[in-house]
Amino acid sequence: MKRKAIDGYEYERVCAEYLRRKGFRRVRVTKASRDQGVDILCKKRRKTYAVQCKYYATPVGNKAVQEVYAGASFYGCDRAMVITNASFTKGAYELAQTLDVELVSDVDPTRTLFGIVDLFALLVILTIIGCYIAEKKERLALSELIPGVSREMLYCAAGLLAVLLMILGSIRRNRYRFREEDTEEDEENES
Q1: Looking at 111, 130, 162, which one is the last position of a domain?
Q2: Does the pLDDT value for residue 106 go beyond 90?
Q3: Which of 7, 137, 152, 178 falls 20 to 30 Å from 93 in CA-CA distance?
């Protein structure tokens, strides 16, 4: 499947919307030229953030971390962040840790938050419910669907499959979350 091509400015708008959904306020995209390596300025929990957005086909390197760190200083921000649709290089992670720059990967506008895995899990759950109701009304005996397999085994297998699919969907969605330690740390600092 071919990836939909978007330009850097469109990706900045995608990231701005992502930040709004994550509870950031006063989210504004900076002007395209002379932005000092900062694409978005925003606030959350009394902290101002400088954000650089990178829509790449390859992992983002430490240059982006350097740029947003310098840009955060230029704009007088408390925190710096790089958001990408891809991942980051080991060098970028190391530098970000040293400079306390947040790295957020996998913010991809071509992916849906609730994907095929979630829809399949929902289908399995609805099938389980439908079979249970049909069996209660004596319209269908599950043991007739697959000879030699008990009704309890079918319900158990379908339930486990649904749970597994929901866990996989949750793991995928959790890649979009920010580090919980930062949120807790910010709440403690406000107290």
Answers
A1: 111
A2: no
A3: 7
